[in-house]
Amino acid sequence: MTAGTPNTANLQGRFIWYELMTTDMAAAKAFYGKVMGWGAQDVSAPDMRYTLFIVGRSSIAGMMNLPEDAGKIGQRPGWIGFIAVDDVDAAAARVKELGGRVYVPPTEIPNVSRFSVVADPQMAMFVVVKWLRPRSDQPAALNARSRVGWHELLAADCEKAAAFYRKLFGWQIAEAAADGYRLFSVGGQAIGGIYTKAPTVPVPFWHFYFNVGDIDAAAKRVKGAGGKIVSGPTQVPDGSWILGCTDPQGALFALVGKHGAGGVGYFERVAPGDTPPTHGRRWSW
């Protein structure tokens, strides 16, 4: 097991899946293929189109059309994270008990998963999920190329948000840094951060950082494929550089990588013994 790879025996409280809800699946498939090098596999059912994003032999995220009624709850194209729990029904009930909201009650996809779409009390959305069958592939290390390497919550109130997630998932929340940024950990491994959003950010949301090689080359791919750079590149404490981006349909995401030859390429190439990054504040508006 490489450094930074979680133990599969207990995934409770970890992000284990990501899903893109978009208004143009074909365009999004082409965009992320060019920017991230992701492959795609159509696994649509008769009543729902669905695509898996593939890295190597592993499926690492999914994509579906943004539901027509999503506008009623203020949704736009975007990424949503799935957090593993041992009991989806109990987790959804606990979300409500802690002041959050359940948008989709516990639902089962036969032989795949049981899940519930929820939001914290500040309305940042996420999914609680439990796989119904063990996955054959190992969870990737945080620094694995082409994977999600960091999870960040832009909250309306950092302290209240930290308390909610600590009670819900048992996350270990670090003391706030001088700028108010708070790291959170699962099983002693820092996997993300929480901070109070700027007033210019309309609503709280979860933000995801995809690992790339050369950040400058990645920026060119984003623009060349029809996306936009909305922030950065900005250097973070571990020496990496980050970019805030939107895809052509308007979904926000971020990239993290290096400058120059040390970061050439973007396909998955992780050496044994690589250590996960240590981050401070990530997003810059």
Compact description:
The chain is an alpha+beta fold. It has helices at residues 25-36, 88-97, 158-169, 215-224, and strands at 15-22, 39-42, 51-55, 58-65, 78-84, 101-109, 113-119, 125-131, 148-155, 172-173, 182-186, 189-196, 205-214, 228-235, 241-246, 252-258.
Number of domains: 2
Q: Quick one: how many beta strands?
A: 16
CATH architecture grouping of the largest domain: Roll
Based on CA atoms alone, the radius of gyration comes out at: 18 Å
List descriptors.
about 280 residues, alpha+beta, 2,3-Dihydroxybiphenyl 1,2-Dioxygenase, domain 1, 2 domains, 8-stranded mixed sheet, 4 helices, globular, disordered N terminus
Explain this structure.
The chain is of the alpha+beta class and 285 residues long. The chain folds into two domains: 15-131, Roll (2,3-Dihydroxybiphenyl 1,2-Dioxygenase, domain 1), CATH 3.10.180.10; 148-263, 2,3-Dihydroxybiphenyl 1,2-Dioxygenase, domain 1 (Roll), CATH 3.10.180. The protein has helices at 25-36, 88-97, 158-169, 215-224, and strands at 15-22, 39-42, 51-55, 58-65, 78-84, 101-109, 113-119, 125-131, 148-155, 172-173, 182-186, 189-196, 205-214, 228-235, 241-246, 252-258. An eight-stranded mixed sheet has the order 2-3-4-1-5-8-7-6, with helices on one face. A hairpin with a 2-residue loop joins strand 11 and strand 12.
